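Hey,
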Amino acid sequence: MEPVRKKQYWRELLETVLIALVLALLARHFVVESFFVFGSSMEPTLSDAERLFVNKMVYRVRAPARGDIIVFRYPRNPDRDFIKRVVAVGGETLEIVDGRVLVNDRYLEETHAIISDHAHYPRTEIPSGQFFVLGDNRRNSEDSRYFGFVPLENVKGRAFLRYWPLERLSLIE
């Protein structure tokens, strides 16, 4: 019987690093990804330069719901990512009157939004598989009022954890 050969230390280390790298890439592609908040369109909920983790699996199980904060590919330039709040989903009607959002003829309770504008948006039915998104800082947000609906295939995931800066570490409701 031949004696068992021990692997060399460097080979074990290399194998471990390669396996960790492959697992990290798979997790980033399919499970969770880090995103950087750019701008003030989601204030006061999210601020410029914060870093978030986005759950990329959740929308394989269910569709985005009203109130979810989503990261999506910008419909006018899919190379850019945007982050906004879903306010209406496919099959619902939406209207904005004097800055207040009506979904299915009922005003939304929006304690998170800075509603300091007097915007109007005509009564519109949201197509199936599409979403109407708004920034929480309505006066400083390029959102569905300007670029239209966000199709489900553009949605990357749901923001769930703010991890930077550390003093603001928290789950995102």
